[in-house]
């Protein structure tokens, strides 16, 4: 089969198009013919060593074992089944829940043995992939490409909103609002949980599109008076921040939060390290929340919201599988709206 593998830590040159044996499903697994795989920050940071190097980059302490086929937002069709899998599942169109875990329901994402497809297992930058049958779920939409954009980004966004206990009528600031996670944060917070959303983007030409997704106000992080504009737009401090940017907007976020406000982060595209004056946090009674991925129940609630039309797929651009280098390079450019998807 055709696949794109990461050979080690480094730049785009570490992504190689190769021929691999088609994997064989174990007794409890199925073989999926991959139709679409959306790109996430996590596979780029894994390659670049942002989670650590020298065998330490990945979701498990032992790190990624190279070569590794990345890719975690996967849709496709079951074409072969393991001996313990119901034969009726052959031919199903599925979306893959992206990790294995022995954790109890509700805490499976924080289990010590949580292992991620595309990091601890070969993933979706390939024509075929094997995965446990019980983690292959019905697609929320009939289209492979559109259904591939929700697995990691969507579950991460949903978990952020739930972790932050967003309530109807509250005001939420979403950073990186035009990105994969950010655009879903806007939709979930506004259209499912009933919040007012202040979307932070770079290019204000995206204002119309962001409002179509559910944003009440759209502001640019390039403004010298961003904090003032946020407070003015809301008529006062805001209730919560859903952040994927990190350092670049951290101090602004704490400044515009009300007393008792919540700051939830799941990314650091604008800087992985910051400075924190603890007085700001405790004098304002601010809750800081770290969040990544989510639970099986949250994933299923997300899929229902997608099926019900409350959360829509936003795709900026697609690439053929063999152009994975170009796709990852494009992914890192600013000004996009939504997800980048590889098609096999």
Automatic annotation (TrEMBL):
SUPFAM superfamilies: GroES-like, NAD(P)-binding Rossmann-fold domains. The keyword rRNA-binding does not apply. Keywords: NADP, Oxidoreductase. One of its GO terms (molecular function) is oxidoreductase activity, acting on NAD(P)H. InterPro entries: ADH-like_C, ADH-like_N, ER, GroES-like_sf, NAD(P)-bd_dom_sf. It holds the Pfam family ADH_zinc_N. The keyword NADP applies. It comes from the Bacteria. Gene3D superfamilies: Medium-chain alcohol dehydrogenases, catalytic domain, NAD(P)-binding Rossmann-like Domain. Residues 10-342 form the Enoyl reductase (ER) domain. PANTHER family: QUINONE OXIDOREDUCTASE PIG3, QUINONE OXIDOREDUCTASE PIG3-RELATED. This is Alcohol dehydrogenase. It comes from Guptibacillus hwajinpoensis. The lineage of its organism: Bacteria, Bacillati, Bacillota, Bacilli, Bacillales.
């Amino acid at each position: 089969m055709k696949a794109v593998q990461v050979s080690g830590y480094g730049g785009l040159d570490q992504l190689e198009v190769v021929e691999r044996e088609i994997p064989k499903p174990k007794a409890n697994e199925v073989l999926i013919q991959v139709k679409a795989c959306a790109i996430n920050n996590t596979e780029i940071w894994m390659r670049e060593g942002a989670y650590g190097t020298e065998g330490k980059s990945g979701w498990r302490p032992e790190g990624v074992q190279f070569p590794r086929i990345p890719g975690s937002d996967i849709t496709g069709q079951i074409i072969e089944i393991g001996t313990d899998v119901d034969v009726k599942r052959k031919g199903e169109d599925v979306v893959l829940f992206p990790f294995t875990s022995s954790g109890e329901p509700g805490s499976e994402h924080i289990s010590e043995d949580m292992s991620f497809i595309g990091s601890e297992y070969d993933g979706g930058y390939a024509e075929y992939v094997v995965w446990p049958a019980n983690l292959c779920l019905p697609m929320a939409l009939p289209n492979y490409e559109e259904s591939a954009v929700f697995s990691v980004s969507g579950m991460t966004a949903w978990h952020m909103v739930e972790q932050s206990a967003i309530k109807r009528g509250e005001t939420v600031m979403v950073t990186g609002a035009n990105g994969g996670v950010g655009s879903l944060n806007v939709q979930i917070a506004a259209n499912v949980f009933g919040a007012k959303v202040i979307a932070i983007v770079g290019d204000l030409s995206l204002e119309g599109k962001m409002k179509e997704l559910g944003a009440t106000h759209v502001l640019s992080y390039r403004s010298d008076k961003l904090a003032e504009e946020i407070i003015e737009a809301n008529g006062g401090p805001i209730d919560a921040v859903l952040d994927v940017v990190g350092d670049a907007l951290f101090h602004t976020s704490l400044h515009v939060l009300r007393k008792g406000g919540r700051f939830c982060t799941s990314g650091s595209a604008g800087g992985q390290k910051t400075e924190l004056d603890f007085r700001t946090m405790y004098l304002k009674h601010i809750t800081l929340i770290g969040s990544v991925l989510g639970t099986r129940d949250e994933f299923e609630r997300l899929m229902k919201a997608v099926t019900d039309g409350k959360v829509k797929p936003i795709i900026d651009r697609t690439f053929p599988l063999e152009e994975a280098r170009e796709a990852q390079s494009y992914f890192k450019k600013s000004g996009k709206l939504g997800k980048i998807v590889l098609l096999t």
